[in-house]
Amino acid sequence: MDLPQTSPAAPEGPAIRRVKHELMRRTLTVAAVTRLTPAMIRLRLTGDDLASFASASPDDHIKIFVPGPDGEPVGRDYTPRAFDTARRELVVDVADHAAGPAAAWARAAKAGDEVTIGGPRGSAVIEGPVERWVLVADETALPAMGRRIEELAPGTPVVSIGAVTGPGEEQTFTTEAALDARWIHRPAAASADPAPLLAALADVELTPATFVWAAAEADVARAVRRMLIEERGHPRSWIKAAGYWAKGRADGAVKSIGD
Ligand SMILES: Cc1cc2nc3c(=O)[nH]c(=O)nc-3n(C[C@H](O)[C@H](O)[C@H](O)COP(=O)(O)OP(=O)(O)OC[C@H]3O[C@@H](n4cnc5c(N)ncnc54)[C@H](O)[C@@H]3O)c2cc1C
């Protein structure tokens, strides 16, 4: 039997190209609101301001400004799930959780509403040599995970592990990459519990030159990174972990989890 051909992971990790974008605010109009799944709201935004929109990496984020608890605007981070500058269109998927102003705004959004966005400020483009990807995401990171899977070169091996509340929340990604899509189910109340994702990761082979990208609730992402380093011996420079939200904390992102 042929063993998979891998080369040793460069200790310094893959090359990462940093791209800066002109920071500007854009005023957009909600063109359509649909439910991608029962708990995922898909917003199609349009506006001429999108002519110059740029997003070079699937895990970029924009700020969406929504009315905060005291009526003043607050910014929350969202992934440009898809965009088409020629058609002046931007797609954002918002996880419908119970508690925050951004989720409340998305639930109430309707065609014709205006919204202001800022960014992306910059992109960190992972350029390789990555031979294989392992992607770990909760609901908030499914947009970034889906975009990454769709943008991978044909045939690229990728294992994705998505944590959702049940089969109805699983998403389908269209890609020519060699995708092994795995889903785990846990109740929304357990979305800050690392155990289900850690158990799913235990079954994933980690060959050299495998880049592991994980984004979820901050403690979950931290636990995933620790397990990869301490139990699996995966090099730090081949892991990117981000807290996309923090339990009990508004706007609690930890964009890059380190030691
Ligand atoms: C780089 C980046 C990209 C992101 N992309 C997306 C994206 O594309 N789609 C998306 O849905 N989210 C995304 N997020 C996560 C999103 O920014 C947070 O979930 C944000 O806190 C939501 O704002 P809010 O106003 O609804 O809640 P907040 O006011 O921030 O929080 C209010 C309360 O709700 C809790 N809370 C926040 N989010 C969740 C959640 N998902 N589930 C359960 N409880 C929660 C908080 O702990 C807090 O107690 C991204 C985050 C980052 C850092």
Gyration radius, rounded: 18 Å
- Uncertain parts: 1-7
- 3D shape: globular
Percent of residues in β-strands:
35-45%
CATH architecture of the largest domain: 3-Layer(aba) Sandwich
Largest sheet, strands/sense/barrel:
7 strands, antiparallel
Strand order of the largest sheet: 5-4-8-2-3-7-6
Element-by-element helix/strand order: EEEEEEEHEEEHEEHEHE
Please work out how many helical segments DSSP would assign.
4
Query: Which ligands are bound?
Result: flavin-adenine dinucleotide
The oligomeric state of the chains shown is single chain
Distance between the termini: 40 Å
Structure overview:
The structure is a single chain. The chain has helices spanning 101-108, 142-151, 195-202, 218-230; strands at 15-20, 25-37, 40-46, 62-67, 73-78, 82-84, 89-95, 114-118, 122-128, 132-137, 157-164, 178-185, 210-217, 239-245. By secondary structure, it is of the alpha/beta class. It folds into 2 domains: 20-122, Translation factors (Elongation Factor Tu (Ef-tu), domain 3, Beta Barrel); 126-245, Nucleotide-binding domain of ferredoxin-NADP reductase (FNR) module (Rossmann fold), CATH 3.40.50.80. The strands form 3 sheets. A 7-stranded antiparallel sheet has the order 5-4-8-2-3-7-6, with helices on one face. It is globular, with a radius of gyration of 18 Å. Residues 1-7 have low confidence and may be disordered. It binds flavin-adenine dinucleotide.
